[in-house]
Amino acid sequence: FLTLAALLMAGMMQAQVAVRISNAPTQANPGDLITVRLDLGDAANQLTSFRGVGFDFRFDPTFIDPASFAVSYTGSDLGQQFVTFVDDITVLSDNNRRILLSPVGNNLANFRFGRLMDISVRLRSNATPGAVFNLTVDAASVIDANFVAKAVNGSQVAINVAGLAVCNAPAGFSTTNVTT
């Protein structure tokens, strides 16, 4: 497995296949649990063989509580083949989780593209309304049936914090209500 992990992070040729964030909300309220889906490839950019995938999932810890990070494989298109998978989630820093998925035994000959997993994170309750933060997948690689690592595209989504933005009055103006 360690050899696979080293291969996953090795830089190789760029491909059209991507680890893509999908089903992300465009807006979230402070305190909300945000769940995004991660897909690998698509109908136009399918894998011909697949032995593993690795990527970094990044977020801004001023918006996201790092302790809330969770992964779910419910609904994954890896199906029953995933039972023999090993996942390794490494905390690289407060804002970065490295995720490596690799099969134990044979490759996933039937997996061409689809849903890998869901990732959930909680927006901090003190997040500033009106602010925007990003969730990012990068440093992505796949391992093919010949154990060759290939760099693939990542993705990023921007999410707005819902609520009323707080506006400070410019110098010389009062924020006191005035009635006449």
Describe the structure.
- This protein has about 180 residues and is mainly β.
- About 5% of the residues lie in helices and about 50% in strands.
- It has one helix at about 1-10, and strands at about 15-20, 25-30, 35-40, 50-60, 65-70, 85-95, 95-105, 115-125, 130-145, 150-155, 155-160.
- Strands 1, 2, 3, 4, 5, 6, 7, 8, 9, 10 and 11 form an 11-stranded mixed sheet that branches.
- The longest helix has 7 residues, at about 1-10.
- Residues about 1-15, about 165-170 and about 170-180 have low confidence and may be disordered.
Question: What is the share of helical residues?
Answer: under 10%
Radius of gyration (Å): 20 Å
Give the end-to-end Cα distance, rounded to a whole number of Å: 75 Å
Task: Give the assembly state of these chains.
Answer: single chain
Strand proportion, as a percent range, falls in over 45%
Structural class of the helix and strand makeup? Answer: mainly beta
Q: List the helices and strands in order.
A: HEEEEEEEEEEE
Question: Count of DSSP E strands?
Answer: 11
The coarse silhouette is elongated
Mean pLDDT: 75
Q: What is the number of helical segments per DSSP (H or I, 4+ residues)?
A: 1
Taking the sheet with the most strands, its summary is: 11 strands, mixed
**Low-confidence blocks of residues:** 1-15, 165-170, 172-180
